[in-house]
Amino acid sequence: MENNKQMRKWLDDFNLNHPLVIAGPCSAETEEQVLKIANELKNSDVSIFRAGIWKPRTRPGGFEGVGEIGLKWLQKAKAETGLLMAIEVANANHVKLALEHDIDVLWIGARTTVNPFAVQEIADALNGTDKIVLVKNPVNPDLALWIGGVERLYKANIKKLGVIHRGFSTYEKTKYRNNPEWQIAIDFQSKFPDLPLICDPSHITGNRKMIQEVSQQALDLNYDGLIIETHIDPDNAWSDAAQQVTPSVLKNIFKDLRVRKESDNADDFTKNMNKKRTQIDEYDAKLLEILGKRMKVADEIGLLKKEKNVAILQNKRWNEILGKMILDGEEKGLSEEFILKLFKAIHQESINHQEKIINK
Asked: How far is residue 14's CA from residue 21's CA, in Å, rounded to a whole number?
């Protein structure tokens, strides 16, 4: 896929002095609800109004969207407010109906991005469109799959492309609904620096109290915009009630968010940053060196276990290490969540090393 500044021209055309903001309810529920939210958002930093028309649910029985009738509500909201309208599409029929109702922005959801066949079907249906098309990351942490989805759309001659980072599903319970895994988004951004990157703090957090925190993290990482679920009565929303904010709360979030300026290569800030980054690089090199030495000790333990026919996994020892590391980590300002992830990964690598030795 080409990587040029033409890819972000659609974003520059908004001529904003702040990050792009897409906001609106998780689901369009009634015409009155859609119009009321849209009108409350029209005189704010919001440029694009979002609403779910078809809602893919994890399990059957939940509210799955109002369907085509909701598109007419969005047309009316656009006429009243001048906001652009955005919806999620999951198949070619959704695309057909969206285009017939002159929807401005179409996004491909995380559950769809994970399926190349579905993405290709949508790309074929959108071939050559001048609409803005956004691709959410797949539910699983797979950078190649995310890139592949964007490439399919680009090959369908769709130039107004962007991506949405909404976090990744995980079996382990964390404070997030979907783990942000910021590094995956950073890697995507590094690969395609001119492709607009939008953060979805609503789906990352699943908790309205964390929206501002995660939004600020995204802006600190130079994201181009935010997509935030907004409802006039969040507690009684028909879907994803816990992660939606009111229009007034959203406006207060805008006031408190800070956009960091890009630095001039010649200023003192950049010089100091370069020094600090050099320190980070040195510490990273030392970390790798220490981990390499630790694995050599793990190899030696594997040889001892093989000699005495001892099982690789020693649960008592492992639990003792984990408990100690959590306590030690807290004293050093490291969260329990981070320590668990780090030492589980180290432990798994040690097991892999010992398995190779024992089964050699």
From this structure: 11
Helix, strand, coil: what percent of the chain each, to 5?
55, 10, 35
Structural domain for 321, as ranges = 268-358
How many other CB atoms are found less than 10 A from the CB of residue 64?
A: 14
Rounded Cα distance between 86 and 71, Å, is 10
**H-state helical runs in 200-314:** 201-205, 211-220, 247-256, 268-308
Q: What are phi and psi of 226, to 5 degrees?
A: -135, 145
Domain boundary among 256, 281, 311: 256
**Per-residue confidence band for 273, with pLDDT thresholds at 50, 70 and 90:** confident
Nearest to 87 by CA among 118, 54, 56: 54
Residue whose token pair is 């780090």:
342
CA 180 – CA 206 distance, rounded (Å): 12
State CA 357 to chain mean position distance: 39
pLDDT digits (tens, 9 = 90+) for 34-84: 999 999 999 999 999 999 999 877 777 778 889 999 999 999 999 999 999
Q: What is the pLDDT of residue 170?
A: 83
Q: Same domain for 44 and 154?
A: yes
pTM: 0.79
